Every structure is written in C-alpha cells, then in structure tokens.
Amino acid sequence: MSDVFLSYDSQDRDRILPIVKALEADGLSVWWDRDILAGVAYDRAIEAAISAAGCVVVVWSEHSIESEYVRSEVEDAASRNILVPVLIDDVQPPLAHRRRQSATLVGWKNKPDDEFQKLTAGIRAKIDAPAASEDGIEPATRTIKNRWYATAGLVLIVLLSVSYYYRESVLVAIAMNVPVLFFGEAIEQQLGFATAADGTRIAYATSGNGPPIMHVLSINTDLINGQHSPIYDNDGLVAMSSRHNLFVRYDGRGMGLSDRDVDDFSLSARVSDLSAVADAAGLERFGILAVSAGGPAAIAYTARHPERVSRLVLAGTVVSNDHINSQARAAWEKFLDFLEVSWQIPAVTIRQAELLIGPDGDAVDKKILGELLRRSTDGPAIAGFHRATLQIDVSEEAQRISVPTLVLHSPDDPIVPLVAGRNLASLIPGAIFELVDGGHMASSASTAATRRRALEFLASGQ
Length: 462
Known about the structure:
Structural class: alpha/beta
Shape: rod-shaped
Helix content: 40-55%
CATH topology of the largest domain: Rossmann fold
Number of strands: 13
Strand order of the largest sheet: 6-7-9-8-10-11-12-13
Largest sheet: 8 strands, mixed
CATH class of the largest domain: Alpha Beta
Oligomer: single chain
Number of helices: 17
CATH superfamily of the largest domain: Alpha/Beta hydrolase fold, catalytic domain
C-alpha cells in the first residue's frame, strides 16, 4: 500500500517527476503509472493502486482537466474523501471540484516551499485519518455505528429475555394499571359512599340499568383495581351482570375504597354495611348475589328484611364454620396471626390466590389476584375479618328465609367443603341446590358459566 496515488495526464510526465521525487524525499511513498509492471492489465493495475493508496493526489493541468481517465480517478477518490488537488498550471479544476482547497505549484522551482508544504500537509491529513469506505461512511463512523447497533441489539435481547423471564409480572403490571377498556367490554361505573350505623364509610359502585342486583362479597374487594381481576370480574363478569341489570357492589369495611381503619367485622357490622349501601343506592327491592365470605351477611339481611329481597343466590358460602374441628381451628388462628404481620409480602398473597384459583389455575391470574389481594386491604383487617368469621353462625336466620333461593357449590371447592354447602341448602326452606364444575371460583359464581346461571335465576323473579 502506497501513501499517494498520483493522478495526472501522461503529457505532463516530465513535469510530474520532480513532484514525485520531492514527495518521496519527504518520506511519502508514491504510486504512479510508471510503476505498472509489464504484462499487467492497465485498468486493473490503476484500480488496485487507487484502492490501496492512502490518498489520491490529482495534478490539475491544461491537459489533465480534459482527461476522462483523470476525471474518473478523481471521482472515485472524492467519493471516498481521500482526494488532495494540486495545480501546476493556472487553470480552473472541473466544476465539481472547485470548492476543494488546492496546493498551487505553478512555476514551482522544485524546492520545499510553502505551497509544497501545504500539499504534504494535505496528504498527511488524509493518510493519518481513518480511510473512508466505498459507501462514503468513514470507518471510524462505521465502527461507532456498528457498536451502537450491537449495543442496541444486546439491550433488546436483554429486554426480551428479562420480559420473557418476568412475563408474568409484566402482564400483572399491565392488568393492574392499564385502563380496563383494553381488557374487554368497557364498564361505566358510578362511585358513591354509604355510612353504616357505626359511622364507617362504605364505598359502593353501580353500573348498568334494569332490575337491581346487589353483589355481596365484602372481602378483598377493590372497586377500582378489581374491575378486571380474577376474583372480582373474571371473564368480564361485571359487564355481564350490568347488561340487563342495575348491578350494585361494594367494598367491605377495611377493604378497597371503604374506611380501612376499623376493627369491628362482626355479623352485625356486615349487615349494617349491606343495608347502608341498599339505602344509599335507592334500592327498594332487589336480588342478592352473595358469594364466599359475603354469604352470612346476605343470609342475615334477607331473613330480617324479606320485603326488600326478591331472590337470593348463595354461591360457595356457609352458614357457619362448625365443619372446622378444634385442631384445625387452632391452626387457622395461628395462620391468621401470621397473615396479620405478613400480608404485604407478595408471596403470601399469591399463595392465597392459589388457594382461591386452584392448583391448575393460570399463573398470571394467580399473580394478578395476589396483587389485588395485597392492595385491597392490610394484615390487621384481613386477620380481623377472618377471626370474626370463625365466630359467625347464621343457621337460625337461614331457616327463616322465605324468598326463592339458589345455592351453588362445587364438590372441588378447596376452601368451602361440599358438606358446608349441603348444610346451607338444607336449612333454607325450598332452596334449590346445584353442583357446578370447578373449584372455589366456579363455586362462588366467579366464572362465566356459574355467573350466567346465577343471573338467570335472579331474572326469573323480576
């Protein structure tokens, strides 16, 4: 590889030789057509020499400005940004190259003067700088770009890997924080607050139009975050329930938007909450869909206010916890002590979600539900609610129910055993008892099929 490829017209060869010798004397290697070996194709030799040179010095003269060979060599060098022009005649270079600064050796006396030093400085600036590529991108620039692309690609791979590894957490974050319109049928709900007899403010929401239905859950609810959660609205249950009805639901005391700083979770307090919401929502007569832990309050309210309840659905619930023996009750009490201080640990709430959804449930649903459980309340409230539940017994109230009642229960329910569901149905005069497939979610009418059945039963009395 030579430092300089000399582009000139052959008619100027004798005038060029002193320039070549002066450049070589200055320590620069020069290639010109006199270096072509015999038997080598002229065009190929020129192309190879230009490609290998650090820069191209074009010697503009009266002859070279008319040479097509010189012009083609110059165009190639200019495209690679390695061109250094020099004038040996008082001529104008071709128009495309007039803006390039040229060294002027017109009348040069073959001595290193200022103009010759200008030429050598231009040459060294080109050969010391990184050579340009054929596409016009400097190799240094290309290296930076390649490194940028490589870095961006690596970052993308890492992000994709992390996203895949934590895909469940990513989906949970989306499900819990992206507006509900991305998750199915949009729900327009109106929020309000009722005041229970002891002054506790209970948050409630209404959606849809038609005959009213009160949804009684009362634990681990969240009217905002729970709209599309596996426990509160699996399979678009709120939208389904609101399609032909005024659907009313509320956050139990100590839960969701309701007052959190409470310690009374007794049956009396729960019935008071239900009654306050019914009055605040202006419900005169309504159907009740009570699920899981909401069952005892609905049973007691219906027994005490039969004139206001049109029909009752009890799903996955109990009249008491007499089916829990003393040993299991003691273990449950110890577990509640643990929940009271560890509820905000995600692993704990995810474990609770697994119990609700079942071992075969979707992993993402479990994490979504676990996050909802954690957000919906705190340790003292959840422990206080369950401790009060262990003491509740509405067997007598169940026997006084006089409205049409449907009891739904799953034989596979891991939380409320089948014996408890049968006992409940046997106490309510004329109650219809239906077995459903699935775990606690199906048992508590929190799947599309069981919710549809519950809505059909409630609608038949409207």
